[in-house]
Amino acid sequence: MSATKMLVLGVVQAAGEVHGYQVRRELLSWHAENWANVKPGSIYHALKKAARDGLVDEVGAQPGDSGPDRIRYRITESGVREIVALVRAALRDATDNVTLNAAIAMLPALTRAEAIDDLGVRIVELEKALQGLRDWMANPQEGLPEHVREQAGLWTNQVNAELDWARKLLARLNAGAYTMADEHG
């Protein structure tokens, strides 16, 4: 799954109409290159591909400051459905933290019920992963080096931390935190 695609569609959706440089500037201001591995060139590629795929429409051009015209984009209904599907899938996938970071940034694209449901699925998946790690640590393979068992300790702590975060976010959403897609004006 592409974190870049999710973030680009989300910025276009939030902005209404926007050109690639504005999308790039917005994502760089979020430091998305650090937590979602978004590269500036991939932003323009994602916009062009989204236009080819009917996820965004080109709505005109404006003169560039010192270069070519800047194409303006607007999200389509297909694009809205796509971002919802991407965010929901990323929230449910307890194995991919890069797209999770993008999904958190795009969380308001979901309805409150969708976000609550998807976080609940993630929590169940994390609980299963934690149990699997505990079982593995309790019954290590014959000859498994101690330093490899140390990794399992690290992973167990990471899953515990993520579970704590997910449960707290779920509680905040249940309490009405954040303005979600079904709550906009």
TrEMBL record:
PANTHER family tied to this protein: PADR-FAMILY TRANSCRIPTIONAL REGULATOR (PTHR33169), TRANSCRIPTIONAL REGULATOR RV3488 (PTHR33169:SF14)
One family name in Pfam for this protein: PadR
Annotated protein name in UniProt: PadR family transcriptional regulator
Residue ranges annotated for the Transcription regulator PadR N-terminal domain, each copy included: 8-83
Top-level taxon of origin: Bacteria
